[in-house]
Design goal:
Rossmann fold, elongated, about 475 residues, Magnesium chelatase, P-loop_NTPase, Sigma_54_int, 2 domains, three-stranded antiparallel beta sheet, 20 helices
């Protein structure tokens, strides 16, 4: 079962079931931060993976996270949207012990050797070694709250439960408290996403949690030594835009770590390959176009750099292009010799992303109405750069010869691979193109068509071929006027 599953697996039958058996097994109590430190050190010694699924941070962010964990520091991750902050925070759970003992029925997941509430201390004293022990899986030791303006102190810390008061308990009885998310994640990891969106008066409620490790609920005198790692995420611009992290709270975080987008093209590609759920084959050269496109959008002066361009932009672009290929295969499968199951994306399919993904990009004021035009220009630039990087130095005269004597080659979203290949026939130099693109000696019909269309588009962008898009969605490559 995966670590992120909300339903925990059943504990192994050989785990101690009572406090006496737990002591006899030599179990010792450790705080969450000691547990994280010990397990991180063990993985570092063994060379085992420490943060599964995190791409592009090996030499930058992850060493800082590891230093924070080894130091026992609570941390705040600062970075623009779509930089994997939440993914990184959730991956910390894998550094916890797979199973940890708890007092059976404890709301605060109290350790049998270290009870913190008066009721649990009394229970341990009365039951002694016969105290029933439960076991909590690490997937259930993680709590998370997206900071929203309507978040209350009661949500995070707790409040008086009127139902328990109605049952006859007195107002001073600690049993009348309904604990919030933070204390209920005791002996675990609690994350606050978009911390600056939390109202300042609510942030104040976290001060004691971070420093004194206790909580205060209304007028109750509670000294609960909470045991947890507190992690938060924030966009740096949120300090001045929607809100800010109050200074006393910032001071209590032991580590402030800056995240970033993939630093080079290969890391961007790795991220797309890992995260995109592709419904059709997308050749590597098409993925490279999309990765370059995402990076070009991110660096464009027309795009607001404060909001950033999420890594989800390139991932969604790859999924959209794959969907376009599947759509073509389904529509044309009955009318061509291309099996509908063989759907291969082509570079022309990327045009659709300029309209479907423009909502993911915040443009500078003054660029209103030009969004699709700007994205289209950046996509063409990315295609040309990929063409030069992949096929520079090849003799492509065989492709330019296809349109001599006023002939044209038609392609487009509703032109099958077989139809495209019938138009071009045997092209001198195609084998070398396929080799450069990593497609191999025995390409499928769809793969060969994807290579041909990529060359035609690259030659057009290099001003060696003309191009015309018809009203029916077909693209015609021909000689230059």
């Amino acid at each position: 079962m995966s670590e992120s599953s909300p339903v925990p697996p059943l504990p192994p039958a050989d785990l101690p079931a009572t406090l006496g058996a737990l002591r006899a097994a030599g179990h010792r109590h450790r705080t969450v931060k000691q547990e994280l430190r010990d397990n991180l050190r063990a993985r570092m010694r063994d060379g085992a993976p420490r943060f599964a699924g995190i791409v592009g941070y090996d030499d930058t962010v992850l060493p800082e996270v590891e230093r924070a964990l080894l130091a026992g520091h609570d941390m705040v991750l600062l970075g623009e949207r779509g930089q994997g902050k939440t993914r990184l925070i959730r991956s910390l759970v894998t550094l916890l012990d797979e199973w940890t003992p708890v007092i059976a029925g404890s709301v605060l997941n109290e350790h049998p050797l270290h009870p913190v509430t008066p009721a649990s201390r009394s229970l341990v004293a009365e039951a002694g070694d016969d105290l029933p022990v439960g076991w909590l899986h690490r997937s259930m030791r993680y709590g998370e709250k997206l900071a929203t303006p309507d978040t209350s102190v009661g949500d995070l810390i707790g409040d008086v439960d009127p139902v328990r008061l109605a049952q006859g308990r007195t107002l001073g009885d600690p049993e009348t408290i309904h604990f919030g998310l933070v204390p209920r994640t005791n002996r675990g990891i609690f994350a606050v996403n978009e911390l600056p969106d939390l109202a300042e008066r609510i942030q104040v409620a976290l001060l004691n949690v971070l420093e004194e490790r206790d909580i205060q609920v209304r007028g109750y005198q509670l000294r609960l030594p909470l045991d947890l790692l507190l992690v938060a995420s924030a966009n740096p611009e949120d300090y001045t835009n929607r809100g800010r992290i109050i200074t006393p709270l910032k001071d209590r975080f032991g580590a402030e770590i800056r995240t970033h987008y993939p630093t080079d093209l290969e890391l961007e590609l790795d991220l797309i390959r890992q995260e995109a759920d592709l419904v059709a084959e997308v050749p590597e050269h098409v993925l490279e176009v999309l990765a370059r496109f995402a990076r070009a959008v991110r660096e464009s002066p027309a795009v607001d750099p404060r909001s950033g361009v999420s890594a989800r932009f390139a991932i969604a672009a790859a999924e959209t292009v794959a969907a376009a290929a599947l759509r073509r295969a389904c529509l044309l499968g009955a009318d061509s010799d291309l099996p509908s199951a063989e759907a291969v994306a082509r570079v022309g399919d990327a045009v659709s992303v300029t309209s479907t993904l423009r909502g993911k990009v915040e443009f500078e004021s003054g660029e209103e109405g030009r969004e699709i035009e700007l994205l289209g220009h950046l996509l063409r630039t990315a295609t040309a750069e990929t063409f030069r990087a992949r096929l520079a130095g090849l003799d492509l005269s065989g492709f330019t010869a296809l349109v001599d004597e006023e002939q044209v080659v038609e392609t487009g979203e509703l032109v099958s691979a077989a139809e495209l290949l019938r138009q071009v026939g045997t092209v001198p130099g195609l084998a070398k193109v396929l080799d450069r693109l990593g497609i191999g000696d025995a390409p499928s019909t769809g793969q060969a068509a994807a290579a041909v269309e990529f060359v035609l588009e690259g030659l057009h962008l290099g001003r060696r071929l003309g191009k015309d898009v018809t009203d029916t969605g077909r693209t015609r490559y021909g000689g230059r006027d």
